Amino acid sequence: MLPTRLSSIMKLLYPTSLKLDIASLEGFSVSLHPYDVKSTIPDDLLDAEVLVTWANSATNLQDAARRMPKLRWIQSLAAGPNDVLSAGFPSSVIVTTGSGLHDRTVAEHTLGLLLAAARRFDQMRDCQLQSTWAAHLGGPQPDRPKDRFTTLRDARVLIWGYGNIAKTLAPHLTALGATVRGVARSAGVRSGVEVYGEDKLPELLPETDALVMILPGSESTKNALNASRLALLPKHAWVVNVGRGTSIDEDALADALEAGSIGGAALDVFVKEPLPAASRLYKAPNCIVSPHAAGGRPQDAEPLIAYNLRRLIAGQPLKNVI
Question: How do 193-196 and 188-190 pair as beta strands?
Fold first, then answer.
């Protein structure tokens, strides 16, 4: 859908939930207005045509969907704007995502989780809190044992959900000596990495030391990693999830961790957040719980907003349209 070319000055609302270089957005035929993402939109801003969102409350978005009749475009700064999509905006409103704004931060966090899993920083911290020397992790150690995930060197890392974040992460893994393969809806070679279709998972999972999941949240990805697929992983394999919590069957994962049928899990996303205190994952052996901390800080949002704003004014297709 092409946006209608604009001929008059319009209002753009930007969130105060993060610091933006607003000066870089000046010079367009647009008036710029800050708004509080946790409150309803003020009456004098309800005629805005552009809404930039980040960490908005559900009430804020639902109110905007009901009371902003001139709204034409929403620029979410989230990679997966489920909050916007579920707020009830009419289909005439163009929604664009913040895809690309979180690639580096999520890739960095994922690398950290993989290193924590391999080097067992979690166990070192547990021992420190008990004033205990983690002797089993220090001193002479076997080099790259086949029955444990202890290093990224020569590790077989499978990234399920091979998009922009995976493309950012993969070079860091290969630089540390890992062999990286990907899984996506369409197969092919991407930036030198072999990417397979999901039909190859039965062959790939048994050959995996670390499974990194970066799947989006949708009905098609719900419980993608279920009990039967967990059973295909080697006993020493770790699961890292930085995509969406709904992509893993959490009960099946907890069962696998408690049974020792996989090496461990490092999780940044969960079906319900905050993760309920009663969740088995908190106390499951070899499980690292990260509080959805991989993203949370869009980088270089201004160039994306400016690019799409320029194209909206010109009546051209926008980038990252859902």
Answer: antiparallel
Residues 137, 152: Cα–Cα separation, whole Å = 17
CB proximity list for 236: less than 8 A, separation 6 or greater: 146, 147, 148, 149, 209, 262, 263
pLDDT tens, residue by residue, 196-238: 999 999 999 999 999 999 999 999 999 999 999 999 999 999 9
CB 50 within 8 A of CB 11: yes
Residue 78: φ, ψ to 5° = -90, 145
Q: How many CB atoms lie within 10 A of CB 159?
A: 26
End-to-end CA distance of the chain: 11
State the pLDDT confidence band at 24, using cuts at 50, 70 and 90.
very high
Residue 10: alpha-carbon gap to chain centroid: 32
Model confidence pLDDT, tens digit, residues 9-23: 899 999 999 999 999
- Nearby residues of 218 by Cβ (< 8 Å), 6 or more positions away: none
Phi/psi at 259 (5° precision) = -85, -10
17 in Cβ contact with 37 (< 8 Å): yes
What pLDDT is recorded for position 6? Answer: 47
Task: Report helix, strand or coil for 120.
Answer: coil
- Is the bond preceding 69 in cis, omega lying within 30 degrees of 0? no
Length of the chain: 322
C-beta contacts of 88-94 below 8 A and 24+ residues apart: 88/62, 89/61, 89/64, 89/65, 90/65, 94/1, 94/3, 94/318, 94/321
Q: Helices marked H in the chain — which ranges?
A: 58-67, 82-85, 103-119, 121-129, 164-175, 201-204, 227-230, 250-259, 301-314
